[in-house]
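Forwarding the complex inputs:
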Amino acid sequence: MTRSERVFRALLRLYPAAYRQDYGEPMLQLFRDQWRDASESGHSFSLLQLWIQTVGDMVTSAAAENAAAFGSSKMWKAILDLRSPNSNSRMVMWVILAFALTAAGVFLRKGLLEVGQPLWVAVLAVVTTMVLASVLIGYVMEARIGFYAAAALFIGVQLVPLFLVNDPTRWFNANPPMGWMIVFLGLVNQKASTRLLLLAGVLLGAAGVLGSLWSALA
Amino acid sequence: MTTPQNDPEKLLPLTPAVFYILLALSDGERHGYAIMQQVRELTEGKLKMGPGTLYGSINRMIQAGLIEESDERPDPKLDDERRRYYRLTSLGKNVASAEANRLAALVAVARAKRLVSQRS
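Prediction (whole assembly, two chains):
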């Protein structure tokens, strides 16, 4: 095998494995034919031109084939399925998210309240909660009322730890627009324990399951 | 229910690469490199397909039922028997014909509006 063929074979790795298995050898054969013709032309420029065209063609077509492979993959189908109001996988996702959010909430509270926890733990917990909540809201926008109700509960309870961090009056004074939420939630309790939050999480998970079932059966 | 099998127009319009591959195979079966050379000849070198574009198109055309891999292999003395040969299916012929008719109708409209330059 020539060096050019080795390079071409390396470029084939840009393509999805299944595609490579089907068309890798015919593509290599075709490149051999092109290389032979370009070599026989006697112009070194022809070989350079062939490489430029081949690399450009392979990069763009590999991107297209990878996109097509992802589009027909089980993972992508599952993601699309999640957006179907009556999908089972969506129901599972809701249950998973319920517990993930609850875990994040517990983590958040522990991270912020326990003495000696490094700041990055708290920051990570907040970011985790926000990302999960964002994902949740994204799906809720397409969801039926059962999902919406469950999501509202999830997010509501996840906000609780934020108000358990410190003296809520200080929060209220420092950030008046947030004050209404503190009053609305009625869950301000500096002495709330992790166990209480876990209990809230379990209730929340149950709400999520019921909401999902309601939506699936509706 | 209409399917591409009974209504080839469902697959129109074709991309230039797909249409030229169908045209290249309309004379008979060919392997990848022969298709590429035929397309280059038909387009006077204006459409250059690399290995990725060619086999990507072939892959999609096989999936759509426009072409199929030929089971017959040439005499190894005449050609490399590892080469894969492709040929048109009946659907492929119908789709090529429908696309040609579509383009002919389009050109007729352009000609009526005097947008087609007369070659001497």
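Residues 178-193 of chain A have pLDDT under 50 and may be disordered.
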